[in-house]
Amino acid sequence: MEHAMKELGPIVVHQAGWLWLIPVFPAIGATINGLFGVRIQRAIGKRAVHLIAIGMMTLSFLVALYSFSRLHGLAPGERHLQDTLWTMVGSGRLSFDLAFALDPLSMMMVLIITFIGTLIHVFSTGYMADEPSYWRFFAYLNLFVFAMLLLVMGDNFAVMFFGWEGVGLASYLLISFWYTDVEKAKAGMKAFVVNRFGDFGFILGLFLLFWSLGGIWEPRNDARSLTYVPEPAAVAPAGAANPYADSAPRFVDVDGHRVRVGPTMSFRELRDQVVIEKTGVAEHLKHQSVWGFALMAVVGILLFVGAMGKSAQLPLYVWLPDAMAGPTPVSALIHAATMVTAGVYMVARLSFLYAMSPTAMGWVAAIGALTALFAATIGFVQYDIKKVLAYSTVSQLGFMFIGVGVGAFWAGSYHLLTHAFFKATLFLASGSVILGCHHEQDMRKMGGLKKYMPVTAATYLVATWAIAGFPWASGFYSKDEILWKAFTARDLAFLGHPAPWLGPAIFLLGIVTAACTSFYMFRSYYMTFTGTYRGGEGHQDEHDEDPHAALAAPHHVTAAHPHDGADHARAKAQELHAHTAGHGAPDVSGHAPAVGAHAATAGAHGAAGHAAASSHGAAATAHGHDGGHHGGVPHESPLSITFVLVVLASGAVLAGLLGVPMLWTHHEPALEHWLAPSLPAEVSFAHYPHATEWLFQGLGVLAASVGWFFARLLFKDGRSHVPRDLKKRLFGFWTVVYNKYYVDEAYHALVVRPSLNFARLFFWFDQHVIDWFVNFVGWVGRLVGTIDGAIDTYLVDGAVNAVAGLFGEAGRAMRRIETGRIHTYLYGAALGSLLVVLFNFLFR
Amino acid sequence: MSNIGLPQFLIVGAFLFAFGILTVLTRRNAVGILMGVELLLNGANVNLVAFDHYVVRGITGQVFSLFVIVLAAAEAAVGLAIVLSIFHTFKTIDVRAADLMRE
Predict the structure, then answer these.
(1) In degrees rounded to 5, what are phi and psi of residue A821?
(2) What number is the ipTM of this complex?
């Protein structure tokens, strides 16, 4: 049941002094916009704010690209760039640096984060243009990117954990970005609190790992230079003296390299000592147990608890759907493309640890599979377009965990990459839809948008194609690889018992989920983009001459029509449209209406222009009618948005090139080859003939087709009555699913309310017992004070006054002697002389 | 009483000193007190000269007594000046009147 490690040497480290630049640029951007953004925005304008933010992101991306070229230039086994800045903590055996490392895995993450991050910053300039605290948004976004880069570039657990918490903070800030809305503030709080549960597990796992590597806290002795020569027989048989018990760092010679063994925070040192068999550390870890459980299983599961929180897996997924309260670019960047994949990244990063415990891997894969199916079913019935995508994200994260859980670490990471593209596209397209429909998120009030927003619809369709898992889009390759590896995985264990059935079971869940994914994604596509527009009633008929004819024409146009913005909730959105049309439209003709719109929107409210810009415009229709209604027809989003959509959608397709399966080309997929040095764990899979593999790819396509077929049948053009009938017939079941299986309510009853009651109990305890005690202590203090005061008044002051009085009385008595008469003094002198003489006689 | 020696001189000196003390302590007249002081000094002078003659056998004591005489003259001058000043102030030279230092 034990996975054999490849016989690998220590990682060859190449110093790269520029790595710190990658995270520092967004940090600078966050600092500038965070501290001076409000002044910059007032003095120069929003343009300056987003230029700073995007500029910093671009610089970061360029440095990342440069690092990629350097990394690519190295031999595959030596791809490890390291930049150690300084030692942050050195205390006993615990020592870690502020250090960054780039290996193929973190390089992939850094490129995703900086590239998609930059694009989403660009998108945000369009999406958030009507936001008063524009600067705050960009400061938070940059802060997020900074923390995320720390997370993936950290060379050790400490830097990674700093980033881990940093992205949690940024996520909290951005979810509750519109904090005046209590619901949104609550959603941010929920995300933060739920993540605390996960982080607690993560920390525990970390401590346990550190401890198990020999981190027994004993005083240092001076055996630093001791060379530890491992003897397989001597390594930790039960009862024997633990060779790791003493606290000095030890080194093992492996083919002329010194490999440090013992507790460490550094991923590289950890990987070296675990992966290299000669050190004996792997053997040592495998045989340790804690409270009767295999130690590596406990460590793996506890670390995965952290991933459950951050990556929204059962049972800690509840925060992610609520996180959709944040602005849509945030949902795309943080809650789809990057932050939520941190857990997957962490498991892949620690692949060599997970590979040692089939139980931990089975656990990860099983949780992933259950989450994938569970979230997908909720996605069936949601009407909020962002909620559908949120549950889809939870579900896709489940797929990634299936990948890393069954040992296909590269496939999980690959799905992370492809998901980053297609889900970012989906979220941004939904953002474009929401903007186009004037901040409407309910799909029941959309429909027919393909006509109004062709670019958005096309990109959404492409991304749906990818996520559903149809061939030639990226989702197909990653998902099929994961499912195939799940089916062939034989080494999983379920809570310590070997479970060869677990892999096929997970495959079954996965293939059902894939069909579900295809169904709910196409459902959302058909509901949103086909049929007739269901929003803004009482408004359509005013457009008799149909400005949309021009919009729907092959050459897209810029149309402007003023409408009454005064009672439009987001009247300032117009500023955005005018702005983008003014600077973004590449064609001259597009400018004519844009200028008009610009002039009209100068006042932001009142009669204003409403401009829809699309990427190509051969004809422009300026179309105006009197105000008196609000809303307005949906319109295509400005260029800053459509441009990003097109780039990301093409990424969603092209990312497939990185993972074309070996079955097709007889070559290792490019990404697998690239990631191989970072994923040293070797997990064995069952072998099947090629025909079987073809069959399973066919099954994947079949599942996607089934989902698509039913979605088309039920939701295309909104014509079918079957969904409504089904809803009526299965209303009880529908209600349960629509309300997300009442998980939130269950948590509220099981966790929140008991903890509130617990808190109330403690409040009572505090009020009555602690306060009583405190008051008693206070009373005792006062008593002592009173006594002390009395002592002071009567004893000390009395003594002082008595001394003073004595001297006063003595002085008054002496005054009598002082007559001023010369005779008195003379008598005194004579008497004194006589006395001296007398004494002289008496005591000589 | 065949010879006059040191004890006789000392007795004279002691008498002079005792009279001087008595004069200083009992006189109310400031000038009288000054005269008593002269007696005191001369009593001491007798002792100085006598001890010098009989014991030391030199001239140190005699020179010393000369100094004392000069000093006494100076003291008398200063003292008389003070007495004059007292008289100016109190219109009397009765020392009982000069008790301004009491308070």
Answers:
(1) -90, 140
(2) 0.80
